[in-house]
# Entry
Amino acid sequence: VLYFDHNASTPLHGEVLDEMMPYLQSNFANPSSVHQQGRLARQAIDRAREQVAALVNAHPSQVIFTSGGSEANNLAISGSVRGMGLSRLMIAATEHPSVRDTAKQFESSLVLDELKVDSGGVIDKDFFFDKSNSFGQGLVSVMLANNETGVIQNLNQIGKVAQSHGHVMHTDAVQAAGKIDVDFSALPVNLLTLSAHKIYGPKGIGALVFDKSIDLMPMIFGGGQERKRRSGTENVAAIAGFGKAAELALTNLSNNRTYLLELQNYFENQLEKITGIIIFSKRETRLPNTTFFGLPGIDGESLLMQLDTHGIAVTSGSACASTSLKPSHVLLAMGVEVDVARSAIRVSFGVENTKAQIDELIKALYAQQQLFASLESIEI
Ligand SMILES: Cc1ncc(COP(=O)(O)O)c(C=O)c1O
# Structure
């Protein structure tokens, strides 16, 4: 299988699996137990908390482990709205469903604004400045890097404006982590979301990083784990794996970024030779691994299926939306025509991909395009 869907999930790194195994086999103790085995499990969590904090230059006490990016996004929004009595939510139109749908839960009880983006997927600054100006304390949620287009937002500017008006600033950094620098201490953000399975860690584990100015109301009550902010016996193996994945992501960040960028350039140079191809957000600052493109006239879903029969894994939008046939909300927010949006395919590379694999992908795409062109000429 040629796997080009790393924004959906990444393979588990061998060293991550090694780190996890003891907590699935010999040491199964509850980390809240005071006996030696319990203390060892607790130490594994403490170590992982340091590793995850280091990845984003935060303090370990700022890290709350959750069941993944979705839960962290839910906690960031619900937790701060309830804990701080916020009266407004300002959410970018291109956010992940775990942000958008959480915000919608509060639609009837507070003012909810969707922040517009331009045709490149970048936040419309004038619209945002205008919205953030009106009164009432709210939460602004703008993702650092988009999972579909790879577009990186200028959080320095957005966060500063948001905070200067007294708003809480949240960013979903799930796709940015491990691919670009993410510095929680330097960025003007109060809450930041991470997920392990996008950085060669296990699924079902993530984190919300928060600063102490934020009063978070927990969503899960019980034994008071995670400093009372997220109860439930910790998933020790997954947390240990997340820690290792974060450590590797930090160590290899610069090399990985350079390599991914090389793959992306190699792919896009050949992709652009296909007549009529559109690479979305091509002129914006993007992640080094993501290429979202459209071939007007082609049905993205059918193309995905065709590639799948050749053992090539890509996606036709965000993974979560690919079971529904609705075109990508990200592209629609950018003003892309519905027909073009329906043709969209996302390719997201990972560090185990090679140029030889990309050659195979390009060959398969060219073959599809020829098929499409010949069908068109028959119709004429
Ligand atoms: C930008 C973004 N945020 C949040 C999530 C959700 O993360 P998880 O799968 O860990 O719940 C994803 C995963 O698809 C994502 O791409």
In short: Residues 68-70, 73, 96, 98, 143, 147, 172, 174-175, 195, 197, 206, 319-320 surround pyridoxal-5'-phosphate (CB under 6 Å). The chain has a mean pLDDT of 94. Residues 236-271 form the longest helix (36 residues).
